[in-house]
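retry 2 of 3: previous attempt timed out while embedding 3-phosphoglyceric acid. Reduced batch size to 1 and resubmitted. Inputs unchanged:
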Amino acid sequence: MSDRLLVLVRHGQSEWNLKNLFTGWKDPDLTEQGIAEAKDAGRKLKAQGLSFDVAFTSDLTRAQHTLKLMLEQIGQTGLPTTKNLALNERDYGDLSGLNKDDARKKWGEDQVLVWRRSYDVPPPGGESLKDTLARTLPYYVQEILPGVLRGQRTLIAAHGNSLRALIMVLEKLTPEQILKRELATGAPVVYRLNADSTVASKVDLAG
Ligand SMILES: O=C(O)[C@H](O)COP(=O)(O)O
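retry 2 succeeded.
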């Protein structure tokens, strides 16, 4: 029986995570802590005895750098890798580059929470989680899932909200349930899928 392995990893801490700035499609690199988190994620995958046939990442440096560091730890630096902006972070629009605490002071706690965690309310000029799902899901279904179902062990390094969108589908979460789902930086989530693409098992390697 083939493994149908799919591992999702949010990038390590970025410079803008550290500064508490809305990031979205802006392109800061990892901090020292983010580099350590990415290496640690690779070590955790190796400790589980996992290796991969293909990798996918976004068009953004912090996810690509995280993938590179993980692959170095696993000893798979030459792994075939596809980069695509379908896996990019949710576009934060006009909020990009603003400090999250300053935004709360300006627009209020509740409004900022709606922009960050509601399912279908986009931030001004940006994408809601629903909008993010509308580009991430077709890419997953067309470009990633067929390989997983053929037994290609697959690693994805991407972003909090592009991965939350995929997790919503994989775990069949409602818009209410996905609101409360947070993804820690550098914490691999290891899925094994059934032949019908539903989740057979999930192991969260956070902590
Ligand atoms: O793009 C960002 O600012 C973060 O990476 C994710 O932001 P969030 O925690 O507000 O979803």
